[in-house]
Structures are given as structure tokens and as C-alpha cells.
């Protein structure tokens, strides 16, 4: 009878599985455990499961066991950091999780202690945790090695399918097993196999021997012979069927800074994972492990200084590879360009200070799309390479390349690589059925002979296992499979760059949009607003201190400690809103502290500015413009918001103004159904939505179908990833909220007119104040939500009298244009997309923009401007955005394009109004300590230089123009030249002029 190949494979699988039950020659249970100092028996439940608990015991390896074959086997009921103390008092720490449960022993007598939590790697609670298992085993290494090798042959046969080599691999496996001498004594055999799935199905097992015998010498010798013969025959077969392809392996343990667990648990995960990686380096000199995130190392320096010292030593030896060049692995859709610059600045500086290296590879495997600003910033930050795998998660369109040039907004390019491993992505495995599909999926084989593959358990940490180390060595002799070697990521990219000099690679221009996880632009919107306020408050505080310094004041100290908190909370599972509730309690507290400290710094800076000004009579007001655009005077005063076109505050200008400058512009009026000033005339529909906005200067009606129509979508229930995703059919079941609780005029000038509208939907309340300032160019919509409904999606939609195939969205350091139609699958997939402070739809001569101070999820379909206001998923936070939150958005008709109409400048004002404080005893006047000539540019920051004296001034070209540009400084200051975002000279970059979307920094100092 002839079996089919699948039948032969199944037979080998069944027979080889039996070897597992003879892995242990002998087993000795470890008793006398304590739990938080109290005795606990094996199998007993914990007396408490909250927080961190501590187990302790001692163990002794029997004298007849070879120490090198002894293993400590533990399952304490949760994740643990294990400390094993040898007879000399030396401590070794190891991570214990479901994938790391067997450990080498440093001596025959050991003390064991643990820090344990009743959690699994993905934050899942262990219900009813017990001290499950604690034993010493005498590992039969010969059996273990053969068992693993046969498993790898089965995996190879599985994935190679109809390949010619399959029959040969089956022959080898069958021959090796036929040569085994195997025990058959009934009592021992039944006891050894009692835990197998087949035996566990039996109604009732017979009494079992407590310590069944292992293999005898002859049986073990047959195993050794089978293993060595099998290896030799695999090598021979490899000559006939040489490797197909090459894979660069990097050991990896993706650790989410916070996700399904709070940050306190991440601190423990770091220590567990890092100790595990170091222990594997002691077992294999070939092994390479990479770990990104400067913040992690800074945290380890606080929590476990000896651990950091060991990491630094291994990094110097070349086994541990620090990587990434950023403070954390941040979301890149929502942070400002300045935040992304600080991620690189502080990350690279930390790595250089601690490890003596800078990184040339940006490592962002898990972020939800990538801003087109990144390539330029990476290049300025010393990185010429970029890695992610997330582009392969897009559900609609397959990203076209695996090895390609990514070209940013300004034309800067970085060499980019992604691999497509269907077996857990960047948490790959060392196994044939992981290698083969990864190589098959590599579409740029003709450009480069190698693809990267990161292996090791991750997201919740853990990393590479001892079995993976053994697997890599065994797979070196396998036929046909891709050749795989442990490699440093930097070395892989160095080789790829060399290949790119000989081959034409594809170029991807602009943002990399992920066709998935679109809801992360909206979920947990409270923390998104706090983050926006925190980064803006820090930028403003630094800029104010810079202006004070230019006037003659002292240079302010660095605000890096506060920036580090903001950067931490930009992590790609915090800012996107995809973490548990505890994470957002911490994030809100941290960001509110930063905001308070930044506001206090702003107050100190304003005082420092005032101290440099001339004395004079009167109760005047000190006004500072922290932007690089001239602003009409607009202040928040007790009488309301004052706007006057008669008084302009220069870019980065300082003015002391008197009461006469605060007179309102004429033309402001209000009733229950209209708001009007000299620029706009707004009419309300009976339901409180906006029926009309007339732009008086042009005579254009801005709306065609109504504005600020509030829609709620009560079936916001994605297939997967509740907090992450929005389904494309969400609008099929939408309700416009038209019912009114109240509509009343609450302010009637002369500085501001306002109408308050209150609505109830089910269990939630929406309060909006529609306001116009005297001479304001925009209609502000201040919103308070008191939300108490789950799995709903709230949006505002405005239909405008404008037609264009493309709309403009602000992004970090520039703008991106996107289609307003769904002509192609690529267009249709972009139904929700990121924008920072505005999105605009313009046609020649006229347009309408929607501005915001806290939101990121936008859509422009046809002539409808949409802004996502709130989502209320139930996983992983059942009460996400429950309760009160406030934010503002605005509608702005304008003449010309968004750029000609001053949309960005108005969005700046909404997010950072002019600063004003009483200036009693200060003379009237105006000053501009720092200015610019040439084309319009936007300010990123004025900050103290990281090294030495002086200031860094950073600007960017925001619209895609080029032209002359030059800073103007006080007579006693000098421009020392252009510098990178790392604040190092860029001798090849002209001091003057700006190119499209260029980010440019200068170091200025006193002459």
C-alpha cells in the first residue's frame, strides 16, 4: 500500500510527537514555596491577585544530574521577573511568561525569588491564579533535539507543498524514526504519555507511576545516532536542493509602551524581556537582538542600573543593537512637525550619550500610517533608512513595493523596507513555515537578494526563546529553505543601500496612508486635545523665552523634561486611543501637568519680556504674537474677544497697546437666527444648523446644503479592532441631530456675538456656542459634549458651494492633497484621513475651510467637509470618552486658495491666540526682536540651543512654494548658519532662501 505525501506527513507528526514525553529523564518537584512570605503548596491558589506578588523557594539539583542538562521549570500563575541566586550569591534575572518557562541553572543550589503579576503577555487577567508548576528537570538533550528537528521537517514539508524536495524530506524523517530503539514497558509507557491529547480523552486512566523511567543508554544512543545521521543527510540533500533566497534575522521583542496594560506593567515587561535577551546571548554568540526606544533605556537606568550596564556592554560587543533614533515609536499622523523633530533630537542624543552611537535606521514597525514630513526629518536626524511592516495591513490595496525609496513632501528620500510575514508579522518565528512565505512575499528579489525578518514574541514583550536559537542552528543544514542568518538591522540596510546603487528602485511619494485603523484619529479625543495643548504650550513657552532673550533677557533653561513627557504620550497606542482606561488616566494627568508647567513658563517669559521694555504711564496691555504671521489684534478680555483690523501685531512681534487700540470693529449684530460682522453674514436654520454663510467681500454664498449638521452613527461596530477601526458603511445608518432643547443669544457685542444651542440625543447632551468676533474671518463653534452612549460615532458635516477634485489637509510641516471622489479603490479607501488644524476645499477664487483646536479625523467627499468629533467604543476601554469634554472648531470662507486666503494663519490663531498680560507702567510701542523677509513661512519654534549658548530658530515652508527668505536679527546678534534638527552645521544648505516644504533651522547667538 502506498500512502500519499500528506498521509506520510501526518504519520511522522503523530509518531514524532511521542518524543516530547521523554524529554525529561527525571523530574524533581520544588516544594517549600512562599507567597508574600506565607507558605503555599504546588497547585494552590494565590491568596491575592492584585498588584505585584512575590514567590520564593530554594532548590537543589541532584548530584547525579549533569548541571548543564538541568533545567528549572516554572509556571507561577502569571508573568514574572525571576531572580535566581547561585551558591556564591550571584544573581541572575530572567523573564517568565508562557513562552519562557524553562531556564538554565547557574549552580546546583539556588534561591529563587519572583516579582509576579496575575497577567498574561497581552494584559489578560489570570482568573483564579495558582502556583501551577515548579520543578527541576533533567533534560534529555538528545531527545529534545531530535523532537525539534523532526518538527521542523514537518513544518518544512507543510509549507513547501508540491516541491520536489518534499518526498526526500519525508524519507529522511521516516528512516530516522525507524532506527530508534524505544521503551515499551507498560507502566512507564502509560505514565509518560498520560498527558498526551489522546490519553486525556480516556474515561479513566489506570494508576500512574510517579517517576516513570526515561530512556536507557542503548535507547538514548539510538536517538543520538538518529539525530546525527539526520543532520548529515539533510546537509547532503541541501547540496542537491540549495537554499532559495536569503533572510536577515533580527531578534526582536516589540514592547508597547502602554496598551492593554498600564505603563507600570511595561516597566516590568522591559526588565523581564531584556534579562531574557541577555541570557540568550550567553548561550549563543551568533544571536543578535534589537531594541528601539530611547525612553526604555532611560527608564531602565532608573529601575535597574546594572541591567543597563550589561546592555551597554553587549551593545559594544555587537550582539545587542539599539535602533530607531527616536524617543519612542510614535504615532506620526497627529504630532506636530516640531514634536517629530524632538522625537529624533532627544532620541539620537540619548543613544549617542548612553551607547556612543547614532542610528541610521528609523524603526517603526507598528504605526498606523506615516506622515510625508518624515523623510526630511529622518535625513536631518542622521537616518537614511526606514522600516515598517504596517503597510501590509492595508485591507483594500496592496502596497506596491517591499524595498523602495520613500520621498517626502520636500523631495528628501530614505531607503525603506517592509516584509510580509503572515505568521505574526514583526513578531515572527524561527521556523520553515515562517521563512518560506516571508521570502515568497518579498516582491523585490530582483533588486536585492535579502529580506529582513524580525523574530520573537512581542507587543507584550517576551522576545526570542531558547528554542528559536536551536532552531536557527538546525535550519542551517536544511535544503531549499531560504538561508537565514542572525544580522544587525543596520548591516541589512547598508547592504540594501549598496544594492540600490546598482538597481532602480520604485519611489513612493508623500504620505503612506494605512487603509485600516482610521478610527485612531478620533478615539480617546480628550487625551488628543490635551496632547495638542501640551505640545503647543511648550512651543509657545520656548518661543516667548527666545524673544525675551533676544530683547536682552537671560536664556531660559531647557524644557526637555516636559517634552519627554509629551513624546512618551505620542506612543502609537496612547495618542491613537487604542489603550485601556488606566493608560488614559495616566496620560491625562501627565499632559495636564505639562500644560500647567508650560503655562507657568509662559507667564515667566511674559514677565521677562516686560522687564526689557521701557517704562511709561497708563494701564496698558502687553501683547505678543508667537507666530511668524502678522495677526490682527485679538485678545481674550473680560468683555469678550476683541478683534481690530486697525491694529496689527507683527510676526513674532511685541506690542504695548492702550485702551484706544482695543476698540471693536463696527458691524457686529446678532439675533436668534443670524450672526453678522463686517466680513461674514451667518443665517441659522430653524433646527440650529447653519443655513447660509455669505462672504461679504466676494459676495459668495459659502454653503450649498447646510453647515454644521450634526450626525450620529449608532452602529459604529467594526468587524475587528473596536477602538481602531471605522467601517466604510458607517454612514448607511446615520441620524441627523435636529431636535433643540434650547437656542438663545448669550452675547451681543460689541466685541463678540454668540448663540448657544443645546441638544439631547438619547442619553447625551451637546452644547454649542456659535460666535463671531468683531471683524473675525471665521465662525467659531465652541462645543461641550456630555456623552453617555456607547458604540456611537459623532460627526459634523458642512456642504459647501465649492467644487474641486482635490482637497487640502494640513499635516506636519506642510499640507497634503487628497481626492474628493472615489474613482479608484485607492481613492475610495481614503474615506477618513488625518489632518492637523484645518482641511480646505477651494476652487479658483474661493474656498471654505474647517478649522479645529483638538481633532484629527477628517473627510472631504464631493462638496462635504466632515470632521469627526467623538467615538465611544467599548474595547479596550468600555467607557472611552464618557462624560464631559470641550473643544472648538470653525468654518472659514475665504477668497483665493487656502494659502491666499490665510487659512493656516487663522488656524494658528484658533490654536494659539495672541498672548496678553497687563503692562502697567510700560510705555506704548512695538518691537520685533526676530523677523524675516521673503516668502511667507511658518514658525516651528525658537528654542535654546542644546549645546553652548544661543538659540535655534526653526521654520518651514508650508505651501509648496520656493523663494527668498532671510532672518532679521537685533544688531548685537549673529546668524551662525543653518543647522539640522540635531543642531549640527549643514554646510551644504544655504543660509537664505526656502524650498517647497523645507524645514530649516538656524543657530543664532550674540555677536
Short summary:
The protein is an alpha+beta fold.
DSSP summary: helix tally:
19
Q: Can you count the beta strands?
A: 52
- Mean of residue pLDDT values: 96
Structural class: alpha+beta
The coarse overall form would be elongated
Question: What fold name stands as the CATH topology of the largest domain?
Answer: 7-stranded beta/alpha barrel
- What spatial order of strands do you see in the largest sheet? 32-33-34-35-44-41-40-37-38
- Name of the CATH architecture of the largest domain: Alpha-Beta Barrel
Largest sheet: 9 strands, antiparallel
Q: Nearest-angstrom radius of gyration?
A: 33 Å
Question: Helical amount among residues, as a percent range?
Answer: 25-40%
Strand content: 25-35%
CATH top level assignment of the largest domain: Alpha Beta
Low-confidence stretches: none
Domains counted in the coordinates: how many?
6
At the fourth level of CATH, the homologous superfamily of the largest domain is Glycoside hydrolase 38, N terminal domain
What is the distance, rounded to the nearest whole angstrom, between the alpha carbons of the first and last residues? Answer: 95 Å
Protein name: Alpha-D-mannosidase
Pfam family, one: Alpha-mann_mid
InterPro entries: Gal_mutarotase_sf_dom, GH38_C, Glyco_hydro/deAcase_b/a-brl, Glyco_hydro_38_C, Glyco_hydro_38_cen, Glyco_hydro_38_cen_sf, Glyco_hydro_38_N, Glyco_hydro_38_N_sf
Domain Glycoside hydrolase family 38 central: 515-591
Kindly describe this structure.
The chain has 1007 residues and is an alpha+beta fold. The protein has six domains: 5-22 and 143-202 and 209-240, no CATH class; 24-139, Galactose-binding domain-like (Jelly Rolls, Sandwich), CATH 2.60.120.260; 246-514, Glycoside hydrolase 38, N terminal domain (7-stranded beta/alpha barrel, Alpha-Beta Barrel); 517-612, Glycoside hydrolase family 38, central domain (Substrate Binding Domain Of Dnak, Chain:A, Domain 2), CATH 1.20.1270.50; 709-898, Golgi alpha-mannosidase II, domain 4 (Beta-galactosidase, Chain A, domain 5); 930-1006, Immunoglobulin-like (Sandwich), CATH 2.60.40. Helices cover 26% and strands 30% of the residues. It has 19 helices and 52 strands. The strands form eleven sheets. Strands 32-33-34-35-44-41-40-37-38 form a nine-stranded antiparallel sheet. A six-stranded antiparallel sheet has the order 3-2-4-9-6-7. Strand 42 and strand 43 form a beta hairpin. Helix 2 (141-160) packs parallel to helix 12, helix 2 (141-160) crosses helix 13 (466-475) and helix 10 (337-355) packs across helix 16 (560-568). The longest helix has 31 residues, at 581-611. 51% of the residues are buried. The mean pLDDT is 96. Keywords: Glycosidase, Hydrolase, Metal-binding. InterPro entries: Gal_mutarotase_sf_dom, GH38_C, Glyco_hydro/deAcase_b/a-brl, Glyco_hydro_38_C, Glyco_hydro_38_cen, Glyco_hydro_38_cen_sf, Glyco_hydro_38_N, Glyco_hydro_38_N_sf.
Amino acid at each position: 500500500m502506498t500512502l500519499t505525501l500528506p498521509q506520510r506527513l501526518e504519520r511522522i507528526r503523530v509518531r514524532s510527537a511521542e518524543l516530547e514525553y521523554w524529554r525529561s529523564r527525571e523530574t524533581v518537584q520544588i516544594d517549600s514555596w512562599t507567597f508574600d512570605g506565607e507558605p503555599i503548596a504546588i497547585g494552590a491558589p494565590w491568596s491575592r491577585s492584585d498588584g505585584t506578588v512575590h514567590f520564593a523557594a530554594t532548590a537543589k539539583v541532584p548530584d547525579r544530574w549533569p548541571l548543564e542538562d538541568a533545567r528549572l521549570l516554572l509556571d507561577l500563575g502569571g508573568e514574572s521577573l525571576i531572580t535566581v541566586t547561585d551558591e556564591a550569591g550571584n544573581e541572575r534575572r530572567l523573564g517568565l511568561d508562557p513562552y519562557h518557562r524553562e531556564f538554565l541553572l547557574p549552580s546546583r543550589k539556588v534561591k529563587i525569588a519572583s516579582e509576579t503579576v496575575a497577567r498574561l503577555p497581552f494584559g489578560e487577567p489570570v482568573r483564579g491564579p495558582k502556583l501551577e508548576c515548579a520543578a527541576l528537570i533533567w533534560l534529555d538533550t538528545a531527545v529534545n533535539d531530535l523532537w525539534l528537528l523532526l518538527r521542523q521537517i514537518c513544518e518544512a514539508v507543510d509549507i513547501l507543498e508540491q516541491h520536489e524536495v518534499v518526498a526526500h524530506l519525508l524519507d529522511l524523517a521516516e528512516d530516522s524514526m525507524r532506527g530508534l530503539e524505544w521503551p515499551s514497558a507498560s507502566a512507564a509507557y502509560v505514565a509518560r504519555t498520560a498527558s498526551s491529547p489522546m490519553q486525556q480523552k480516556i474515561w479513566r486512566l489506570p494508576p500512574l507511576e510517579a517517576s516513570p523511567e526515561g530512556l536507557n543508554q542503548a535507547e538514548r544512543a539510538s536517538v543520538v545516532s538518529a539525530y546525527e545521521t539526520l543532520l548529515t543527510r539533510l546537509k547532503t540533500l541541501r547540496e542537491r536542493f540549495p537554499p532559495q533566497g536569503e533572510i536577515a534575522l533580527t531578534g526582536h521583542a516589540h514592547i508597547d509602551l502602554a496598551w492593554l496594560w498600564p505603563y507600570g506593567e511595561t516597566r516590568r515587561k522591559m526588565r523581564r524581556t531584556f534579562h531574557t535577551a541577555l541570557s540568550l546571548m550567553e548561550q549563543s554568540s551568533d544571536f543578535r537582538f534589537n531594541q528601539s526606544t530611547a525612553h526604555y533605556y532611560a527608564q531602565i537606568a532608573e529601575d535597574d542600573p546594572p541591567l543597563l550596564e550589561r546592555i551597554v556592554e553587549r551593545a559594544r560587543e555587537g550582539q545587542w543593537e539599539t535602533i530607531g533614533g527616536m524617543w519612542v515609536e510614535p504615532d506620526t499622523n497627529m504630532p506636530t512637525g516640531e514634536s517629530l523633530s524632538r522625537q529624533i533630537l532627544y532620541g539620537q542624543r540619548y543613544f549617542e550619550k548612553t551607547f556612543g552611537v547614532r542610528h541610521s535606521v528609523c524603526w517603526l514597525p507598528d504605526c498606523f500610517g506615516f506622515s510625508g514630513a518624515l523623510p526630511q526629518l529622518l535625513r536631518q536626524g542622521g537616518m537614511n533608512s526606514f522600516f515598517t511592516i504596517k503597510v501590509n495591513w492595508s485591507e483594500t490595496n496592496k502596497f506596491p513595493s517591499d524595498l523602495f525609496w520613500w520621498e517626502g513632501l520636500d523631495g528628501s528620500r530614505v531607503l525603506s523596507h517592509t516584509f510580509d510575514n503572515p505568521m505574526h508579522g514583526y513578531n515572527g518565528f524561527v521556523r520553515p513555515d515562517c521563512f518560506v512565505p516571508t521570502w515568497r512575499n518579498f516582491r523585490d528579489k530582483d533588486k536585492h537578494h535579502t529580506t529582513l525578518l524580525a523574530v520573537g514574541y512581542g507587543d507584550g514583550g517576551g522576545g526570542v526563546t531558547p528554542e528559536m536559537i536551536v532552531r536557527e542552528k538546525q535550519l542551517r543544514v536544511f535544503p531549499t529553505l531560504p538561508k537565514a542568518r542572525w544580522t544587525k538591522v543596520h548591516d541589512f540596510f547598508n547592504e540594501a543601500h549598496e544594492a540600490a546603487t546598482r538597481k532602480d528602485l520604485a519611489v513612493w511619494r508623500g504620505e503612506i496612508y494605512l487603509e485600516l485603523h482610521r478610527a485612531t484619529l478620533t478615539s480617546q479625543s480628550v487625551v488628543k486635545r490635551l496632547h495638542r495643548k501640551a505640545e503647543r504650550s511648550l512651543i509657545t513657552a520656548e518661543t516667548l523665552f527666545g524673544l525675551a532673550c533676544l530683547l536682552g533677557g537671560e536664556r531660559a533653561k531647557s524644557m526637555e523634561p516636559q517634552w519627554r513627557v509629551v513624546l512618551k504620550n505620542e506612543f502609537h497606542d496612547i495618542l491613537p486611543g487604542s489603550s485601556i482606561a488606566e493608560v488614559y488616566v495616566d496620560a491625562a494627568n501627565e499632559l495636564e501637568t505639562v500644560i500647567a508647567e508650560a503655562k507657568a513658563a509662559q507667564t515667566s517669559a511674559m514677565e521677562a519680556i516686560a522687564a526689557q521694555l521701557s517704562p511709561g504711564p497708563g494701564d496698558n496691555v502687553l501683547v505678543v504674537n508667537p507666530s511668524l504671521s502678522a495677526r490682527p489684534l485679538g485678545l481674550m478680555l473680560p468683555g469678550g474677544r476683541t478683534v481690530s483690523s486697525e491694529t496689527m501685531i507683527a510676526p513674532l512681534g511685541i506690542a504695548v497697546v492702550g485702551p484706544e487700540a482695543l476698540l471693536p470693529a463696527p458691524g457686529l449684530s446678532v439675533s436668534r437666527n443670524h450672526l453678522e460682522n463686517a466680513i461674514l453674514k451667518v443665517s441659522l436654520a430653524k433646527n440650529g444648523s447653519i443655513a447660509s454663510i455669505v462672504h461679504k467681500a466676494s459676495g459668495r454664498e459659502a454653503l450649498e446644503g447646510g453647515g454644521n449638521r450634526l450626525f450620529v452613527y449608532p452602529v459604529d461596530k467594526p468587524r475587528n479592532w473596536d477602538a481602531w477601526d471605522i467601517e466604510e458603511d458607517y454612514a448607511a445608518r446615520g441620524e441627523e441631530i435636529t431636535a433643540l432643547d434650547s437656542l438663545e443669544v448669550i452675547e451681543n457685542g460689541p466685541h463678540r456675538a454668540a448663540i448657544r444651542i443645546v441638544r439631547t440625543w438619547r442619553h447625551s447632551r451637546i452644547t454649542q456656542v456659535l460666535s463671531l468676533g468683531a471683524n473675525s474671518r471665521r465662525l467659531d463653534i465652541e462645543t461641550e459634549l456630555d456623552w453617555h452612549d456607547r458604540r456611537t460615532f459623532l460627526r459634523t458635516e458642512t456642504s459647501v458651494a465649492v467644487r474641486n477634485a482635490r482637497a487640502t489637509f494640513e499635516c506636519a510641516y506642510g499640507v497634503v492633497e487628497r481626492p474628493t471622489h472615489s474613482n479608484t479603490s485607492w481613492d475610495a479607501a481614503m474615506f477618513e484621513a488625518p489632518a492637523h488644524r484645518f482641511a480646505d476645499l477651494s476652487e479658483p477664487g474661493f474656498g471654505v475651510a474647517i478649522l479645529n483646536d483638538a481633532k484629527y479625523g477628517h473627510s472631504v467627499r464631493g462638496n462635504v467637509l466632515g470632521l469627526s468629533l467623538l467615538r465611544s467604543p467599548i474595547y479596550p476601554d468600555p467607557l472611552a470618552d464618557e462624560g464631559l469634554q470641550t473643544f472648538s472648531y470653525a468654518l472659514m470662507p475665504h477668497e483665493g486658495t487656502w494659502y491666499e486666503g490665510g487659512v493656516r494663519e487663522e488656524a494658528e490663531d484658533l490654536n494659539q491666540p495672541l498672548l496678553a498680560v497687563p503692562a502697567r507702567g510700560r510705555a506704548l510701542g512695538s518691537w520685533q526682536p526676530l523677523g524675516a523677509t521673503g516668502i511667507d513661512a511658518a514658525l516651528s519654534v525658537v528654542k535654546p540651543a542644546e549645546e553652548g549658548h544661543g538659540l535655534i530658530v526653526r521654520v518651514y515652508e508650508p505651501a509648496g512654494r520656493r523663494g527668498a527668505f532671510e532672518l532679521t536679527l537685533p544688531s548685537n546678534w549673529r546668524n551662525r548658519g543653518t543647522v539640522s534638527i540635531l543642531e549640527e552645521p549643514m554646510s551644504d544648505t544655504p543660509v537664505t532662501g526656502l524650498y517647497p516644504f523645507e524645514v530649516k533651522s538656524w543657530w543664532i547667538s550674540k555677536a
